[in-house]
Amino acid sequence: MNKKVLAFDFGASSGRAMLAEFDKENRKISMTEIHRFPNIPVTMNNTLYWDVLRLLGEMKQGIILAQKYGKIDAIGIDTWGVDFGMLDKDGQLVANPVNYRDRRTEGMPEEIYENIMSKDDIYKKTGTQSLRINTIYQLYYLYKYKKNIMNCVDKILLMPDLFAYFLTGKMRTEITDASTTNLLNPETLEWDEELMSKLSIDKNIFADFIRPGQVYGELSDEICSELECDKIPVVAVATHDTASAVVSAATDSNTAYISCGTWSLFGTEMPKPVITKESMEYGITNEIGYNGSVRFLKNIIGLWIVQQSKRHWEMSGEKLTYPMLGDEARACEPFKCYIDCDAPEFELGENLPDKIAKYCQRTNQYVPATRGETVRCIYQSLAMKYKSTIKMLEDVTGMDIKRINMVGGGIQDKTLCQSTANATGCTVIAGPVEATVMGNIAVQLIALGEIKDLKEAREIIANSAEYAYYEPEDNELWNAHYNDYLAILGK
User: Fold this and answer.
1) Do 223 and 276 have their domain in common?
2) What pLDDT is recorded for position 347?
3) Is residue 365 part of a domain?
4) H or E element that contains 305
5) Could you tell me the CA-to-CA distances from 112 to 119, 184, 220, 286, 287 in Å, in that order?
6) Residue where one domain finishes, among candidates 182, 206, 235
7) How far is 274 from 278, CA to CA, in rounded Å?
8) What is the pLDDT of residues 305-351, one digit of tens each?
9) Cβ contacts of 183 within 8 Å, gap of 6 or more
10) Which of 182, 81, 199 is nearest to 140 (CA)?
11) Tens of pLDDT along 47-82?
12) Average pLDDT in the 479-486 region?
């Protein structure tokens, strides 16, 4: 019989349960979305929380629905990185996990650099791009300013590990997600004890490591009784969603990838960490991938800016779609204005169209007057950001990037894919759309012995997915405007 596995994929705005069946004879994975649900943070007392208990309820619903399709052979979970839940000695949540966009880490990186350890020295130890959202800054804040809470905490579990704990009762720390914390040494694959000691972070607060393909455990007796289901094993996939997406991506000496969604993760796959003066200055991060590989990538604020702009415009009651916004953008004159997508004001989602207008005004540019002009500004700025990132990757790795494999939900936006090809001069291979889920499923199937290894997994994923191809158009025109973009950014 064909194996069936259940993949839970949590994004920053929604989650879903995807049921997959593997046809071993035809080497093909088929998927069915059986449950989708919103993932909407909740603000209480000026703190932005994940509504984690409701998300657990949605997972339970997904398991119930999956059973209608027959025997489920495994479950895998992937989520965003850096965030965590805190548990007391009885294994109970101390508080709901806080969303990485919460303001509590504002000023924390600078405080550490000034008083404890320099930004450069932290990078040399962890190879991780400095972002205020990283776990290191969240924990520093908690240990220094919320000691009353930390006195109650026995263990912290990163988000995918927390959900696995809810289902199995087993506490583990999966290595690909651990590498997003800014506390892991990517060469030894152990916590950097000197760094943690200087920050007064107890390394014992983390559970033991688990690797992709290993099993957390089976569904607990309590869960099986409540959901009237079998003892299904919960597999540790590459639990950081980008790590799962990269399982599905094609990379070689001439091909980079962009995992394209709320964030754009632009990088390549390396056999070992690259921690140099150049990679540090460029802010390129070394995160762990499947089988100990290194995701050498740049974190870029991606379609978040479009998503939140759309959300703001819809507050008036008008229902918009991304194809509609793309059509409006293409109808507008190009190259009139640019933003730095990673500017701090775009991290938070309040009235982003107004923030874009103020950015353009402050930098003495044309100020977008319509929705289409605003979206055009975002897309061409993001494409130009990709162009600059290619140069960074080539400078550090010696690659000659000719192709970009764009994966993830963002590739459904044809305007973005074509703009990326135009700006970079690279052929864009768009697919799979469901890269993260495909990677999640593939690692489960490897763990079950159905797929031999990563190489075979990528062949099967390629056989199971659809791809679109974009060749550069007007590349000379984009090159001519690239210096305008750099000038706005002060480069």
Assistant:
1) no
2) 85
3) yes
4) helix 304-313
5) 8, 17, 41, 21, 22
6) 235
7) 10
8) 999 999 999 998 999 998 899 899 999 999 999 999 999 999 877 89
9) 126, 135, 136, 139, 191, 192, 195, 196, 201
10) 199
11) 999 999 999 999 999 999 999 999 999 999 999 999
12) 94
Q: Would you place residue 357 in the very low, low, confident or very high pLDDT band (cuts 50, 70, 90)?
A: very high
Q: How remote is the C-alpha of 8 from its chain's centroid? A: 14
d(CA 412, CA 429): 12
Both tokens of residue 144? 């220094």
pLDDT of residue 432: 96
Q: Can you tell me the distance from the alpha carbon of 248 to that of 457, in angstroms, rounded to the nearest whole number?
A: 8
Q: How far is CA 191 from its chain centroid?
A: 21
Residues making up the chain, counted from first to last: 491
342 and 202 in a common domain: no
Q: Rounded to whole angstroms, how far apart are CA atoms 454 and 175? A: 17
Other CB atoms closer than 10 Å to residue 94's CB: what's the count? 15
Give the domain CATH number at 175.
3.30.420.40
Check whether residue 223 and residue 260 sit in a common domain: no
Residue with tokens 């548990």: 87
The span from the CA of 406 to the CA of 420, in Å, is: 9
Query: Look-up: residue for tokens 């055009």?
Result: 376
Provide the H-helix boundaries in 67-158. 108-115, 119-126, 135-145, 147-150
**314 shares a domain with 208:** no
Using alpha carbons, select from 357, 376, 378, 375 the residue that is nearest to residue 366.
357
User: How far apart are alpha carbons 299 and 122 in whole angstroms?
Assistant: 17
Residue 466 pLDDT > 90, yes or no? Answer: yes
Active site residue ranges: 241
Residues 128 and 280: their CA atoms lie apart, in Å, by 8
Mean pLDDT for all residues in the chain: 96
Q: Are residues 227 and 279 in the same domain?
A: no
CA end-to-end span of the chain: 58
Q: Give tens-digit pLDDT for 247-263.
A: 999 888 899 999 998 88
Q: Tell me, what DSSP letter sits at residue 153?
A: -
Give the Å distances, CA to CA, from 443 to 31, 152, 193, 216, 293. 15, 35, 30, 14, 14
Task: Please identify, among 235, 264, 290, the residue that sits at the C-terminal boundary of a domain.
Answer: 235
